[in-house]
Design brief:
The structure is a homodimer. With about 400 residues, chain A is an alpha/beta fold. Chain A folds into 2 domains: about 140 residues, Alpha-Beta Complex (Aspartate Aminotransferase, domain 1), CATH 3.90.1150.10; about 230 residues, Type I PLP-dependent aspartate aminotransferase-like (Major domain) (Aspartate Aminotransferase, domain 2), CATH 3.40.640.10. Chain A has 12 helices and 12 strands. Chains A, B: Keywords: Aminotransferase, Pyridoxal phosphate, Transferase.
Chain lengths: ~400, ~400
């Protein structure tokens, strides 16, 4: 007899659907909707990346290639990693696939149903979504004041069933950049208890103050550390769906076999775009980062002008994560309120874990006019209600 | 404690690695290797498809889009399906993803570990690879003389644990096109026992004699039939990694949630390529098919000239699947023999199931010179050994 399998009951997908549906319905009436809910840039990929993609298409890079990724791209990743993190991974430590898939593949290749993985809270929702459908238990470590991690909080949650710790620096949604001391503590805990450590570094090129530090310092990804990286955020290439993992060779081999089984390979012309992206002049990257920083500053300053809203300055990533508890609303009510009253679409903090409640997330990679108009609208909508606005 | 998960022991990936390694080692010595092992065309995608991909890149179709696929592509699939199969699926019956992923997603969304799926034998290896790593049991139905299916053989293998039947017409590796009567029998068995039916129709545009008939006639994919289709074979677009499933809305919704969880979405510029591909003039498709037919005829005729080899004329797909049992070798020994003695890379039939043994698979979408030279080489290598060549 046919029936859907057990795992389908755990498939949650995007929690944003309700907000998206209201936003789309309002937009369909002709109303201007300011969209800050998607973690993507309004700015295009670099022209040389688009040209490289087109050139690869013209040159016939349009057939099946190796599942782990074409060698020129993996060589380019080796060199980029040497420059960025100070070690050169072996070719067999690298596999290319969409960065989001790396989360699914690492979790499924290291944990059985019933095993546990530890994430920080707030966390990127895909960690939860994968745990949910695989029957693997997500254990969360609430971050402390300023979204800092206390290593004791982490270690207290390790059990004999813990297989994987996931960190994310700079963090989505908080924008917090983990300090070298925090990273060293996490690496020490992972080593002491012999647990895999997935370091989600997708925002490593999006740091405005401080510097990126990776737990790969401890083992060069040979023992337990897996780096997740990709091109969506640092190189404005979300639509290319290109990322890569660097990790212990035996785990990377399994992930490659899984990618082969499920996906065959990534489009080769997309991999050529990755080679071009890694060769982007530092000057261009710095220019774009400076511009992003100015957008961050603008958004955070304007958010702090809104009654009931306070926003710390995030050191990295592409999000403002203001505290909206002063409005008296919870994060979902606030999201619906500003969408209906000010046409501003943003993400309730509750989607990022219990510790995300009381906050909302806005991706500020929009133009200045959009940011200014949206913040002005929210200020007006909340203006007469400095405290305890109740969503009707 | 860290350890790889149980499912990693079931990851088998490509069984071709040994042959590929020998082929690559020989090629590295400067020797000409004639490659027939990959199920891909030597011919490029249509120029208008490449242009559409480049235009979509130039027009900024490079950001996140809906996980189920952009609506213009799904609308184009509706129209194409109406023309090809005589029914118009609803939008919520369609999800786009790489065709190979559809196999993984359909199996995982319909069967639990310990459940059973039924495939024909010979079969496309991904069916086995997915069953292997998920702990779902693959039950095979050996095809009879001429690779025909007897419905009684199928029904005899149904148990209370059977969740899914997978058919593949035209078939890989056999090239057999299932008759309308065979398809009606399969659909009746699936309906009688209330089982999902995955119809892998990736080669539906690669038929040279007879016509394509789909089990979707019975339910318009509303009840149990899932069509797997894509652009790799019919439109020579293997490197785009674009396919689609049409099925019952509740199953398609789950597959979309799973795609959202694991991959987020497909690149939008690749989806625009799909729209262009579906608009390909019938004349161009017919021209290419005629050319493919001539390559098939050439290869089959030349194979039949080789001592110990007999090859039936396949009605569809892109493979010759000769019987090599007359050489006295099994299929793996034959594959190594012709690779080392004649520089011909092909796929042992044993990789496609027990019923594939005694055969080898060659993809004939190569130019005439390559086909002629390879067959000449195999003929010479086998010439002095009309019977019982033993691989040293």
């Amino acid at each position: 007899m046919k029936r859907l399998s057990d795992l389908t009951t755990g498939l949650v997908g995007q929690p944003m659907l309700e907000i998206l549906n209201i936003a789309n319905a309002l937009a369909a009436t002709g109303r201007t909707i300011y969209r800050f809910e998607v973690g993507d840039s309004d700015f295009d990929a670099y022209p040389h990346v688009i040209e490289a993609t087109k050139q690869a298409l013209d040159q016939g890079n349009t057939k099946y290639v190796a599942s782990n990724g074409i060698e020129p791209l993996r060589q380019a990743i080796r060199e980029y990693t040497a420059g960025k993190l100070g070690f050169t991974p072996e070719l067999n430590q690298i596999v290319t696939m969409p960065a989001n898939s790396i989360i699914d593949f690492v979790i499924r290749c290291t944990a059985n149903p019933g095993d546990e993985i530890i994430t920080l809270d707030p966390y990127f929702p895909t960690y939860e979504a994968v745990a949910s459908y695989t029957g693997i238990r997500q254990v969360t470590v609430p971050l402390r004041e300023g979204f800092r991690l206390d290593a004791g909080d982490l270690e207290a949650r390790i059990t004999p069933k813990t297989r994987l710790i996931i960190i994310n620096t700079p963090g989505n949604p908080t924008g917090a950049v983990m300090s070298e001391a925090e990273i060293r503590d996490v690496a020490a805990v992972a080593a002491k208890h012999d647990i895999y450590l997935l370091s989600d570094e997708i925002y490593a090129e999006n740091i405005y103050e401080g510097r990126h530090f990776s737990p790969s310092f401890a083992d060069q990804c040979r023992e337990r550390t897996i780096i997740l990286s990709g091109f969506s955020k640092g190189h404005s290439m979300s639509g290319w769906r290109l990322g890569y993992a660097i990790g212990p060779a035996e785990l990377i081999a399994k992930m490659g076999l899984m990618f082969n089984t499920v996906y065959t390979c990534l489009p080769p012309f997309i991999q050529h775009a990755g080679i071009a992206a890694l060769a982007t002049e530092r000057r261009l990257m710095d220019e774009r980062r400076s511009y992003y920083r100015s957008l961050r500053d603008l958004m955070v300053n304007l958010l702090n002008d809104i009654p009931g809203v306070t926003c710390a300055m995030p050191a990295g990533a592409i999000y403002a994560f203001p505290d909206i508890s002063g409005t008296g609303m919870n994060s979902k009510d606030f999201a619906r309120f500003v969408l209906e009253r000010a046409g501003v679409a943003l993400t309730p903090g509750a989607f990022f874990g219990k510790r995300g409640e009381g906050h909302v997330r806005l991706c500020y990679l929009r133009n200045e006019e959009t940011i200014a108009a949206a913040c002005e609208g929210m200020k007006k909508a909340l203006g007469g209600n400095k405290r305890a606005v109740k969503f009707a």
